[in-house]
Amino acid sequence: MYSRRCHKIKRLDHFTLKYKSSAISCHRYGNGPVAVLCFAGYGETGNAFSLLTGDDTVAFSLFCIDLPFHGSTAWNENRRLLRKDLLVIRDMVLDLHQAASGVETPSESAAKNPATPYVLMGFSLGGRVAMELYRSDPSRVSRLLLLAPDGLRFGFWFSFSTGTWIGGRVFHLLMYHRHLLPRLLSLVKKTGLIDKSRMKFIGNYLQDPESRKLVYKRWSVLGKMKPSRARLRRLVMQHHTTVRLLYGRFDRVIPAADGVKFNGTIQPHGAIIILESGHQLLVPKNRKVIVAALRE
Fold this sequence. Notes:
The protein is an alpha/beta fold. The chain has helices spanning 83-101, 106-112, 125-136, 156-163, 165-176, 181-191, 196-203, 209-221, 229-239, 257-263, 287-295, and strands at 2-9, 11-19, 22-29, 34-39, 60-65, 118-123, 141-147, 242-248, 270-275. It has 2 domains: 2-153 and 226-295, Alpha/Beta hydrolase fold, catalytic domain (Rossmann fold); 156-221, no CATH class. The longest helix has 19 residues, at 83-101.
């Protein structure tokens, strides 16, 4: 199904994993015994989490995976990313972590302890992927950190463009035929379906043809990543998973309101932290709070 061989490239903290016809890029930070699987936001790579390294995180090894069509990940499967793909990629990464942590081979380690726990962290779009991975095998996740996560609520446009055939065709036409896009954005702005902050956020990624094509590829390939709040709540309560939700007070892209509501349904396992920040939480001024949420 996949190769466990790790191909080192240029930097010691960056490697690729062969998965079927694809190459999965992963950034590693730290050499601690506790594995942390991280997924970054739209347009970012795994090195967005590099700021978390330091003397206060020596207990952790952060494995930060580049999503399809992000960074150096080459997704060549000609289909959407599925939860079963996430599980295999997760196992590849954790096998490498186990092999690097001791003298045992991955197979020997798995035979002795097939359910080694790990921490799961995701920011923005990566939060949606993290929630889907958690849903696939919650028993192994000791802590779930969600930083301004996408996916606790889906609007009409996401469901239409990724969940229906006609919506997918319309999305493709808009991204590949630039003369249609300004008309739609103008209409959406007039109707008020998307506020000014989100319009600005969207506009930043639609400036040129290549960026629009990437939007289409990145959004479409993750179309199956659709967490269910009800199912997440049920799994958190069943497995007593510690959940930490972090939001920016001034975030207009993914406001904290949905996180506050969800956090109220997973007590006593959840806590929400509001940072004096906008949407981008992975910045130096927020490091101390994020690390505290990871370590507590």
